[in-house]
Design a protein that fits this description.
This protein is mainly α and 157 residues long. The chain is 38% helix and 8% strand. The chain contains five helices and two strands; from the N terminus they run H-H-H-H-E-E-H. It has helices at residues 8-15, 42-54, 74-90, 106-109, 132-148, and strands at 112-117, 123-128. A two-stranded antiparallel ribbon has the order 1-2. A hairpin with a 5-residue loop joins strand 1 and strand 2. Helix 3 packs across helix 5. The longest helix has 17 residues, at 74-90. The mean pLDDT is 75.
Length: 157
C-alpha cells in the first residue's frame, strides 16, 4: 500500500474521492486544454506534497525505543511517578525548556499553526501554540521529562 502510514487527511487532499486536484502550469485555466494533457504528473504531485508538508517537519527523525519501560525496577518507576506528582503539585517549572519568562524569543512566543480545511483547503483557522491549553500540556510534559532526567535511563534511549 503506497499510503501506509500516511494521515487520512493527507490522502484525502491529494487522492480524494472527487478526483485528483489538478495543478496547472502558469497561464493555464483548463479551458482549451485537452483532458488527457498531463498537467499534474506524479513528479509534480510528489513535489507539491513535499513542499506542502515541509513546514510541518522541524526536526530529524527520532529513533523509537525498543523496550517497554526505561526504568530498571518497578521501584524506580514508582519513584518517578511520585516525583512528577510532587513537581506538579508544587507548581515547579523546570528551567531550560522555554517555559519560563525570558527563555522564549519572539519567534517562540508567536508560534502559530494554520490549519486548513474545507474543499481544497479553502478555509483556515489559526491556532496559537502558546495558548493556555497547549502551555499546560507543554509544562506537564517538561516536568515529566525533567524528572526522568534524574533516573538512569541512558541505556533505554
Amino acid at each position: 500500500d503506497d499510503c501506509e502510514g500516511v494521515h487520512p487527511d493527507t490522502i484525502e487532499r491529494y487522492h480524494g474521492t472527487h478526483g485528483r486536484e489538478q495543478t496547472r502550469c502558469h497561464g493555464q485555466t483548463g479551458a482549451g486544454h485537452p483532458d488527457d494533457e498531463d498537467t499534474n504528473s506524479g513528479d509534480q504531485l510528489i513535489s507539491q506534497i513535499e513542499e506542502d508538508q515541509e513546514q510541518n517537519v522541524r526536526h530529524a527523525a527520532v529513533e523509537v525505543p525498543g523496550k517497554k519501560s526505561p526504568f530498571v525496577t518497578q521501584d524506580d518507576e514508582n519513584l518517578f511517578f511520585s516525583t512528577v506528582e510532587q513537581i506538579v503539585v508544587e507548581g515547579i517549572i523546570p528551567e531550560g525548556y522555554s517555559l519560563l519568562p525570558g527563555e522564549q524569543d519572539d519567534e517562540d512566543a508567536a508560534m502559530i499553526e494554520v490549519l486548513q480545511f474545507g474543499r481544497c483547503g479553502t478555509k483556515s483557522i489559526v491556532v496559537s501554540l502558546s495558548d493556555s491549553v497547549w502551555e499546560a500540556r507543554a509544562t506537564l510534559w517538561c516536568q515529566g521529562l525533567s524528572a526522568l532526567s534524574l533516573f538512569e535511563t541512558e541505556r533505554y534511549f
